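yo

u said u wanted the structure for the complex thing, so here. seqs first:
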Amino acid sequence: MIEFHLDSRSGVAPYMQLIQQVRHALRLGVLNEGDRLPTVKEVVGRIAINPNTVSKAYRELEYEGLVQARPGLGTFVTRTLAGGVQERHEPLKRDLDRWLAAAREAGLDDESIEALFLSAFRSFSEARA
Amino acid sequence: MTGALIAEGLTKRYGRRTALADCTLAVPAGHVVGLVGPNGAGKSTLLQLACGLLDPTAGRIEVLGAKPVSGSPTIGFVAQDTPVYGGMTVADHLRLGAHLNPSWDHAFAERRIAQTGLDPAQKAGRLSGGQRAQLALTVAAAKRPGLLLLDEPVAALDPLARRGFLQGLMEFTAENGTSVIMSSHLVADLERVCDYLIVLVGSKVRVAGEVDDLLSSHHRLAGPRRDPVDPGSGVHVVEESHTDRQSTLVVRSTAPIDDPSWQVDRLGLEDIVLAYMSGSGAGRDRVLEGRR
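structre next:
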């Protein structure tokens, strides 16, 4: 069973924070196939959050095919994201390390690197959206 | 779906003082609605009109499809500072509630009192602020109302008691799907527990909508000073401020901001609320007049 938390300063919508926490737990192997997510009532009673927010997050996760709601029983994990993560991440991380070294050599400081990455990432995702 | 609350031109005057002037709004059912605004915006008056404690001077109000009457079994009300009868015990409150309300759910009331750790024999006047709030919520919720109205229920509570109160409120809504309208200045709390937000300033709705939509459609733009400000079509400027070199805007836009000379940042609900509270009224008109 996982426990949710909310960061009220992030500007990320609460339902999205719950989704991200489930995905994160799936990637880390904290949640595995067959595990039950806490019920809506358990979540709202624990972190004082709107029940519709929890339902919306669970619906979205179900739509993504990560969980399945079984009436009367609860919401269960149907797929894991942990498999093969290490293998796929390694080469990407090596490329990123090379890029970071090149950026540092070009005289960029940490903040400029972060700003450059974020703006490139943003236009990349918007172009694909 | 009928609305939880519909008001048209709603006005309440006390002699020459106007507490609410020509207020028009529609609150959908099935939500936990946060009502925010500066002091004197008319929030408490609106809630008291909604539960039938006050009669309007002019205009129309409808709650769950009917004109509200005081003591209605379909409307639960927790007034500001969660008043209780100091000389009566906790158990007396439940007995009184059962006596006054035909729809009273006694099993629910007793379960909630046990859950919150209240002693039924305790005099209500000796309860802590948090315990008093829990008792007031229990009495209002055990009526099994279709709409629960709460006026600043947690304002006077410490953070722990506040969290406990909101946990209880959310458990109740999760179980019953009751519509809730709650006024509060504590936007961080509202961001957690509400899925719909209304900003009321001077009896007028500045913005209303689902919290997720509000969060995803509002942005802060910062960039080189420009005059006049034209952030593009479909972009509504909520608040603007300028220095000699820089312009900073809070905007509402469902489309992404393409102009690369703006630095675009996400906004939390508190910043959005503040932008509507300060960007409204005299401040902005003055700026516009100064430029002409």
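The CA atoms of residues 198 and 208 of chain B lie 4 Å apart. The two ends of chain B are 47 Å apart (CA to CA).
cya
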